[in-house]
UniProtKB/TrEMBL annotation:
<keyword id="KW-0812">Transmembrane</keyword>
<feature type="domain" description="YiaAB two helix">
    <location>
        <begin position="77"/>
        <end position="129"/>
    </location>
</feature>
<feature type="transmembrane region" description="Helical">
    <location>
        <begin position="12"/>
        <end position="32"/>
    </location>
</feature>
<dbReference type="Pfam" id="PF05360">
    <property type="entry name" value="YiaAB"/>
</dbReference>
<keyword id="KW-0472">Membrane</keyword>
<keyword id="KW-1133">Transmembrane helix</keyword>
<feature type="transmembrane region" description="Helical">
    <location>
        <begin position="44"/>
        <end position="64"/>
    </location>
</feature>
<feature type="domain" description="YiaAB two helix">
    <location>
        <begin position="14"/>
        <end position="66"/>
    </location>
</feature>
<feature type="transmembrane region" description="Helical">
    <location>
        <begin position="108"/>
        <end position="124"/>
    </location>
</feature>
<dbReference type="InterPro" id="IPR038972">
    <property type="entry name" value="YiaA-like"/>
</dbReference>
<protein>
    <submittedName>
        <fullName>Membrane protein</fullName>
    </submittedName>
</protein>
<dbReference type="InterPro" id="IPR008024">
    <property type="entry name" value="YiaAB"/>
</dbReference>
<feature type="transmembrane region" description="Helical">
    <location>
        <begin position="76"/>
        <end position="96"/>
    </location>
</feature>
Length: 147
């Protein structure tokens, strides 16, 4: 059974909203860290979690999309993407649970983190969709014959 996948070009509003979600979520999270009265190593922990979370979320989205389009993705890499995303979210939850922050601050960091992850996934999806409407190759599934 040959599935034909039709990709529609994302609207400018969705592309803009995706970028706003990513940039606003990350900027607010980082601004909160900058102004926080926590030790530098604790700030580094939360910064690293944001970077790790963004990478793992975008990598998972790309892997899901690759599989959908018939581009090979090993099961091991796919599983590692899922594990990485879950670990990043769990590490944030454990860090916030044990932090000596007000509940409102904990919620602030959690929501900014999750907004950043959503924005990162949406931006990556849009970049990939828009590349198909320009003459930029995303990836080839079969080698081209020279001739």
């Amino acid at each position: 059974m040959n599935k034909q996948i039709q990709i529609q070009q994302p609207t400018a509003a969705f592309v803009g909203a995706s970028w706003v979600a990513l940039l606003l979520g990350a900027a607010v999270y980082l601004l909160g860290l900058w102004n926080a009265g926590m030790a530098l190593n604790e700030k580094g922990y939360y910064f690293t979690l944001l970077m790790y979370g963004l990478f793992s979320a975008v990598s998972l989205q790309k892997s899901v999309r690759d599989r959908l389009e018939g581009i090979p993705v090993t099961g091991m890499y796919f599983a590692l993407c899922w594990v990485s995303l879950v670990v990043a979210v769990l590490l944030l939850a454990v860090g916030l649970w044990n932090a000596t922050l007000a509940s409102s601050e904990k919620g602030f960091y959690a929501m900014a983190f999750l907004l950043s992850l959503f924005g990162g996934v949406a931006v990556q999806k849009n970049v990939r969709d828009l590349a198909q409407f320009k003459d930029e190759p995303v990836a080839e599934t079969e080698p081209r014959a020279e001739g």
